[in-house]
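for the recovery benchmark. tokens below, seq after
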């Protein structure tokens, strides 16, 4: 996102009325601009390359190419666009599959207008913290079940299993490993700073280094990574 320009948003959903509603909400806010709309995933991939949006609001269940594969194609191409998955239920396997594919967050389709606007701003700013504890609950649900999440998603580790340790984890300092575990709990920078008696600026520095070392896009991807590599294992069987 340009420091001087508005946040550019691409709307992707096969329901015209939903796209219209989101457009009305977003274009009524200062600093936000809807640059295009797509009704299916293949068109979304093309428009991201053409229009270079900062944020994509991506439905998952669409014809031709679903939102999960579209998200994977966009992130694999190296686009800087941040993707927010739109879903109907907070514990939705497709939402988890979207996070696996590279999305930065997910939102319920009936989200309040103020929450939608805030999510777009937060994700565009690179923070990618949208309802972190709901994201954690989503991850724990599907990691514990061992079920593949959505069409084409990689199979997950069975409940209680630990994946082979990623060599990249060895590059983290003990403090950075603590920070990654705290991020995976859904803690904000302020909460992490309070827990470890650090300044928020120091926490931000640690988070930035963790993302760089692990070659991750944002905090949500760090949470997905921590669960998939077995660094964090769901521990509450009654969750």
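predicted aa per position
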């Amino acid at each position: 996102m340009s420091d001087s320009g508005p946040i550019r948003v691409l709307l992707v959903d096969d329901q015209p009325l939903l796209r219209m509603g989101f457009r009305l909400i977003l274009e009524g806010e200062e600093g936000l601009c809807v640059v295009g709309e797509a009704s299916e995933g293949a068109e979304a991939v093309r428009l991201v390359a053409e229009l270079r949006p900062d944020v994509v609001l991506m439905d998952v269940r669409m014809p031709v190419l679903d939102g999960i594969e579209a998200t994977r194609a966009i992130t694999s191409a190296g686009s800087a666009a941040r993707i927010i998955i739109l879903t109907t239920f907070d514990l939705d396997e497709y939402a988890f599959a979207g996070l696996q594919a590279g999305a930065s967050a997910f939102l319920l389709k009936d989200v309040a207008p103020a929450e939608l606007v805030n999510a777009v701003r937060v994700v565009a700013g690179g923070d990618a913290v949208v309802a972190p504890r709901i994201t954690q609950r989503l991850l724990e649900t599907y990691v514990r079940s061992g079920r593949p999440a959505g069409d084409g998603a990689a199979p997950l580790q069975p409940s209680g299993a630990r994946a082979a340790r990623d060599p990249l984890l060895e590059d983290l300092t003990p403090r950075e490993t603590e920070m990654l575990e705290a991020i995976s709990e859904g803690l904000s920078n302020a909460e992490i700073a309070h827990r470890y008696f650090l300044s928020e600026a120091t926490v931000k520095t640690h988070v930035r280094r963790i993302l760089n070392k692990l070659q991750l896009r944002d905090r949500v991807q760090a949470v997905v990574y921590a669960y998939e590599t077995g660094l964090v294992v769901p521990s509450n069987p009654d969750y």
